[in-house]
Design a protein that fits this description.
With 225 residues, the protein is α/β, with parallel strands linked by helices. It has 2 domains: 106 residues, 2-Layer Sandwich (Nucleotidyltransferase, domain 5), CATH 3.30.420; 96 residues, no CATH class. Helix content is 52%, strand content 15%. The protein has a 5-stranded mixed β-sheet with strand order 3-2-1-4-5. It is elongated. The protein starts with a strand and ends in a 12-residue tail after the last helix.
């Protein structure tokens, strides 16, 4: 059986690999963007046991390992770091440290992670919540617009009659509020999309800082029973 300690980053990963039959440890770096990581895991003989720290941008990696029937253990990042004898961090050393914890399984601080189906459902619920918040924000702005023009209908503003009265307001005012609301929705939608894909300015800064520091964004969860 092949056991792999993986120090996972946004654009690459460092591996410390040992074949249980041979006992030889090898190190390598895999790039994500050019398909090198997928090719490596696709060509491994037999199911491998992979361990890594919890990170927020590894959903595609979890699906990749599941596709090729490899077993993934995700560990609590803080406990993994606390178990290190040498506190100086390097990518190679981090991968070797994770491998050492995997070789003695009761020392690896494994945490529970949701299934891909469960995670997708959570993402859909979060997206729905955002859409409801956007709808409420738009309704509040339109209510304020109507009241500023002496049109106070409260909930009746959203009936057919109320919407007809709203559309009957002076065109310049309606156009102005629609442009303002539309720009706000586009900006918010773009920001939410970038955050969900991990490609916004905040994620870019974090990725650069973590790449130079030798660590990824960490998360934690309850330990399995």
């Amino acid at each position: 059986m092949i056991i792999i300690g993986c120090d996972f980053h946004t654009r690459f990963q460092k591996l410390a690999t040992v074949d249980a039959e041979i006992g030889e440890i090898t190190k390598r770096r895999l790039e994500h963007g050019n398909g090198e990581a997928r090719a490596f895991y696709a060509t491994l003989r037999g199911p491998a046991h992979v361990g890594t720290e919890a990170t927020v941008n590894a959903q595609w990696f979890e699906r990749l390992l599941q596709e090729y029937h490899h077993e993934l253990w995700v560990g609590d990042a803080a406990q993994i770091r606390a178990a290190a004898v040498r506190k100086q961090k390097t990518d190679d050393r981090d991968a070797l440290h994770i491998l050492d914890l995997l070789l003695v399984r009761d020392k690896f601080p494994r945490i529970w992670i949701p299934s891909p189906e469960n995670r997708d459902l959570r993402q859909m619920l979060r997206h729905r919540d955002k859409l409801v918040r956007i709808r409420t924000s738009v309704q509040n702005q339109l209510h304020a617009l109507a009241m500023s023009q002496g049109l106070c209908r409260k909930a009746k503003l959203w009936t057919k009659a109320g919407r007809k009265e709203l559309e009957g307001l002076p065109l310049a005012i309606v156009t102005c509020i629609c442009e303002t609301v539309g720009k706000g929705l586009l900006l918010r939608g773009r920001r939410d999309y970038e955050r969900s894909q991990g490609c916004g300015p905040l994620h870019t800064r974090k990725a650069r800082r973590n790449d130079f520091a030798g660590g990824g964004a960490n998360g934690a969860g309850p330990r399995p029973a």
